[in-house]
Design a protein that fits this description.
Blueprint lengths: L1 E10 L4 E11 L4 E5 L6 H8 L7 E6 L2 E2 H4 L2 H8 E5 L10 H10 L5 H14 L15 H13 L5 E5 L7 H18 L2 E6 L2 H4 L4 E6 L2 E5 L1
Parallel strand pairs: 3-8, 3-9, 6-7, 7-8
Antiparallel strand pairs: 1-2, 1-4, 4-5, 9-10
Helix pairs in contact: 4-5, 4-6, 5-6, 6-7
């Protein structure tokens, strides 16, 4: 599913070396944690995997395609990826329902179908009574569940989750991780979680440890 070959990412003309020759492979349907302290390169790695950033050198292959050589990033993200971020990135002046609809616009899904699917996804997340609520009117856990619903809106093959529990209390964060893992199993999604929390990493099938832009070991 995902193969990363000798990935490097430098900023400021090489003064900041976020990634230094990272290579790894992730299988279809696998749940993997990228574990390490803040600044180790895990967020940069996810950003490049999701085509939100470009590598200095190296390659990212997904389903047999070198994604940074393809050029059609918007299409790739719309059809293959779902993102869950630490601070959810919901649009504050849109309802939860409208936020979940957003990824479906790129697929050309008609309005009625968008609303029906967004409603169904939010109901699956236990947010049936929050469809018309603004993000500021719901709890942090509810916002993150809405973000998971949005990540699923385009039926992605891969979910990239960057510190998805970092802004949540322990109980709520655990529920979000269990939800992501259940979705991974039920829908055969490939799940990659960047985290500095060993309790989160322990829940996935495999952990890849990073420090100073390189991978150290797998457990």
């Amino acid at each position: 599913m995902i193969t990363i070959k000798n990935l490097t990412k430098h900023y400021d003309n090489g003064l900041i070396k976020a990634l230094n020759g990272v290579s790894l492979a992730i299988e279809t349907g696998e749940a993997v944690s990228i574990m390490g302290p803040s600044g180790c390169g895990k967020t940069t790695l996810l950003s490049i995997m999701g085509t939100l950033d470009a590598p200095t050198e190296g390659e990212v292959w997904i389903d047999g395609s070198n994604i940074h050589a393809e050029g059609s990033f918007d299409r790739f993200r719309a059809h293959s990826l779902g993102f869950v971020f630490q601070f959810h990135h919901l649009i504050p002046n849109l309802s939860l329902l409208e936020n979940v609809e957003i990824p479906m616009y790129a697929l050309g899904i008609p309005g009625r179908q968008r609303r029906e699917k967004a409603s169904r996804l939010l109901e699956e997340m236990g947010l049936k009574e929050r469809l018309s609520s603004l993000p500021s009117r719901v709890s942090g856990g509810e916002r993150q569940r809405a973000a998971v619903a949005r990540a699923l809106a385009n039926n992605p093959k891969i979910i990239l989750a960057d510190e998805p529990t970092g802004s949540l209390d322990t109980l709520t964060g655990d529920r979000i991780i269990q939800l992501l893992l259940a979705l991974c199993t039920e829908r055969r999604l490939t799940l990659v979680i960047a985290t500095h929390n060993p309790e989160v990493a322990a829940k996935t099938g495999r952990t890849i440890w990073m420090r100073n832009g390189v991978t150290l070991q797998e457990t």
